[in-house]
Amino acid sequence: MSVVDWIVIGAYFFVMVAIGWWSKKRVKTIADFFTGDGRIPWWLSGISHHVSGYSAVMFVAFAAIAYDHGLTVYIWWALTIGLGIGVGAFLFAPRWNRLRAKHDVKSPLEYLARRYDLPTQQVLAYSGAALKVVDIAAKWVAISVLLQGFADIPMAWGIGLTGVATMAYMAVGGLWADVLTDFGQFVIQLLAGFTMLFAVMSELGGFSSLWTMWDDLPEGHSDPVAGPVSTTLIMAFLLVKTFEYNGGMWNLAQRYMSAPSGSQARRSALLSSGLWLVWPFIVFLPMFAAPLIVPGLENSEQSYIEMAQELLPAGLIGLLLAGFFSNTMSMVASDTNVITAVITRDIAPVLVPKVKSLTERAQLTFARVTTVLFVTFSMTIAIATGGEGFVLDVVVSMVAATMGPISIPLMLGMLPWFRQAGPLAALVSWAGGMGVWTVVKWGMDGQSEAAIVGLPLVTSLLLYIGIALVRPDGNSDRDALIDSLNTDPPAAGDGAAAVRERPEAETEAGTPVPDAPA
């Protein structure tokens, strides 16, 4: 890398940190820190939702799959996410927002104590927080692999550089810093992505190469189902990602909660869905073409790095690397904020009851300290792993497979069709799904990725529904909570008129009742 590249990267870090510190003036309460107090515009929330959904893993592990097998990586990953978010725009996005607006919920798990009971909330909080630590550690490893490839920077230094920069703006600016830097990072992603695409088109002979290159690529690279990807795996991922990207991945629930109303949260989800269907495909195009530009690589995880170094001049490599940083820092920042919310609102008050009586300012300080500690802990885990084979195994297998058992009680608990599911259904569903994942992943040899990813979620889903049917456990307080999520508060909506949403699916589920007490 040249001096110009380092100047570009340095400028990127400076701008991100500056945006974070500028956001500090918007954060005066704990609600500002965790949900933006419902004042984040729907379009900004939607872009942030999209940007927070992927990291530098895309340019390492997924670039390897694109190099080896072609189009299928877009089909089983980005397409399933885009479709899943589109479904969630009508099922989940407005309800997340109404939890904040009607019940003063500041953490995605905060409502679980009332929907089920305190033990259920704590089990999901601890297991989800533990999962997120490992997930974020995988993201640190991914960006360190890219730094090593481009600049020969040791892994520990790469993780430390990115982690400290992320802490510098997240600890002071909270969710406002997160969404504003997400917007800046999205602009950088657009510049970096199109720069790489134009470089590849120029190398291969112009714009027409976008459709002519497929004839020159290895056989099967244009097939939607190829290599280790099967139709069953695609369907399993569609089911998993529908839960994961609509709130099972807690940080994405925050994006819906931060919008001004439930109807605007739906717009955010639809915007994010559209971006997922289009933008990853554009980013993947150079990865699909990589076998024509850097053929014969033994380690396909290096394909994007090798291609960039061959095609891009000084300065543009720095821009591309800044794009990698932006992907990782966006996801890690949003994960950090939501985990801090869970610790501050759900875990700490149970462990130390005095936390409940802290002043607003003291709660804000507590949240900022927790942010620093959590990021530091995840960085330590990332450095300790050494990074070998860690990225793909964690992100694809562990996170995708265990997110289902955690998200089933969390998300279905908001829907009117599952009002009879109580604490027993939630806990057995979680335990059954996690148990099946443990057996399939570690106790059985030769299981397909579809089984490892899909069986835990299907098990949790069936147990949750089955127990609710056999041992119904509804009550009036839970019914009031669920029904209150069918409509926006009278003062919320678009413009001056109140918006009382009654989508067809919600109307058929039951008649809303007056707002339940928070």
Automatic annotation (TrEMBL):
<feature type="region of interest" description="Disordered">
    <location>
        <begin position="480"/>
        <end position="518"/>
    </location>
</feature>
<comment type="similarity">
    <text>Belongs to the sodium:solute symporter (SSF) (TC 2.A.21) family.</text>
</comment>
<keyword id="KW-0769">Symport</keyword>
<keyword id="KW-0813">Transport</keyword>
<feature type="compositionally biased region" description="Low complexity">
    <location>
        <begin position="488"/>
        <end position="498"/>
    </location>
</feature>
<feature type="transmembrane region" description="Helical">
    <location>
        <begin position="42"/>
        <end position="67"/>
    </location>
</feature>
<keyword id="KW-0739">Sodium transport</keyword>
<feature type="transmembrane region" description="Helical">
    <location>
        <begin position="188"/>
        <end position="214"/>
    </location>
</feature>
<feature type="transmembrane region" description="Helical">
    <location>
        <begin position="424"/>
        <end position="444"/>
    </location>
</feature>
<feature type="transmembrane region" description="Helical">
    <location>
        <begin position="73"/>
        <end position="93"/>
    </location>
</feature>
<keyword id="KW-0915">Sodium</keyword>
<feature type="transmembrane region" description="Helical">
    <location>
        <begin position="123"/>
        <end position="143"/>
    </location>
</feature>
<feature type="transmembrane region" description="Helical">
    <location>
        <begin position="364"/>
        <end position="384"/>
    </location>
</feature>
<dbReference type="GO" id="GO:0005886">
    <property type="term" value="C:plasma membrane"/>
</dbReference>
<feature type="transmembrane region" description="Helical">
    <location>
        <begin position="274"/>
        <end position="294"/>
    </location>
</feature>
<dbReference type="InterPro" id="IPR001734">
    <property type="entry name" value="Na/solute_symporter"/>
</dbReference>
<keyword id="KW-0472">Membrane</keyword>
<dbReference type="InterPro" id="IPR038377">
    <property type="entry name" value="Na/Glc_symporter_sf"/>
</dbReference>
<dbReference type="GO" id="GO:0015293">
    <property type="term" value="F:symporter activity"/>
</dbReference>
<keyword id="KW-1003">Cell membrane</keyword>
<keyword id="KW-0812">Transmembrane</keyword>
<feature type="transmembrane region" description="Helical">
    <location>
        <begin position="450"/>
        <end position="470"/>
    </location>
</feature>
<dbReference type="Pfam" id="PF00474">
    <property type="entry name" value="SSF"/>
</dbReference>
<keyword id="KW-1133">Transmembrane helix</keyword>
<dbReference type="GO" id="GO:0006814">
    <property type="term" value="P:sodium ion transport"/>
</dbReference>
<keyword id="KW-0406">Ion transport</keyword>
<feature type="transmembrane region" description="Helical">
    <location>
        <begin position="234"/>
        <end position="253"/>
    </location>
</feature>
<feature type="transmembrane region" description="Helical">
    <location>
        <begin position="390"/>
        <end position="412"/>
    </location>
</feature>
<feature type="transmembrane region" description="Helical">
    <location>
        <begin position="314"/>
        <end position="343"/>
    </location>
</feature>
<feature type="transmembrane region" description="Helical">
    <location>
        <begin position="6"/>
        <end position="22"/>
    </location>
</feature>
<protein>
    <submittedName>
        <fullName>Na+:solute symporter</fullName>
    </submittedName>
</protein>
<feature type="transmembrane region" description="Helical">
    <location>
        <begin position="155"/>
        <end position="176"/>
    </location>
</feature>
<dbReference type="InterPro" id="IPR050277">
    <property type="entry name" value="Sodium:Solute_Symporter"/>
</dbReference>
